[in-house]
Prior knowledge:
mainly alpha, 5% strand
Amino acid sequence: MDVSAVIAQQASDQAAKYKSITIEKDIPLEPDVGLLTITDPNPIDPALYSTDLEVHLQSLARDGVQSLFTHIFALPTQSSIHGPLAVLPKPTSKLPRTKPLPKPKPPTKWEIFAKAKGISHTNKDKKVWNEEKQEWSNRWGKDGKNKEFEQQWIHEVPQNAPHDFDPVLEARNKRKERMAKNKTAQDRNAAYALAGDHPQASRKEQVERKLARTKVSTASMGQFDRPLEGDKPPKGIKRKFAPAEDTQDERDKSLAMIAKLDGRPVPKKVRTDPDSRKNGKKTADVLNVRKAIKHASKGGGSLTLAKATEQKERGVRPKAISKTQRKAQKGRR
């Protein structure tokens, strides 16, 4: 009986049922055992992808998992209560963070002072040696060194103490006060570190602003007040005055005012620029013509100014007009 055919059939069936643990592809798979991942850089076969998508994806997943287990079983192991465990190496792939890097913790007031003075920070031990008991005891907490005065068997009572004086309670209250004081200092240092500026600096700035206001609150606006010792002149914007001598700017303004005084009555309504009317925008002139005429005519108006200008051109000296006559002229108009 020829059993070669039967053996060959069984081998083919076993090969079809149990695939090989060695994965061979055109482009080798990229393992990262530290992250327990396998990257397959091979392109997807369009024919297999379109024929049966589910079977094709299962085949790719099986190859990746098989390659990952092959690399894991090749790693060194260590014994544990749960059995041998594989020692994973460090990851080689760099994954992006889901959140930004945490900001560095701002230094406290003491840390800034210690850095400036070159003081090194040393952590205190949690245990201290108790000479009386000849044993190590806690520095804080239960049976701590900071509670030894409260737990001692004899206490000294002051002479002026009241009759209900409790030295244990007094020692406990003092310890609680020290704890509250330290907590307040910690909160102040934390606020200083977050604000980035010392609270005393901002307080000093507020006091300086209030002092500057009080200096100008007197009747003389602080001109004749006695200066304080070490007082500095306030910083501010200095007023700019027009020059006393004749300048081109002043000459142009005077010529513009004379050009507008053409002798015709000026309505009370402020005239607008002709160019702005063409553009559809109403912008008032820089010069108030009505006030300029009133100032030039000394309250007489445009007609009085026109008569004075005409008399000046003829060489006739204008007559002085009293206030009563000026009021009468205004009444006739």
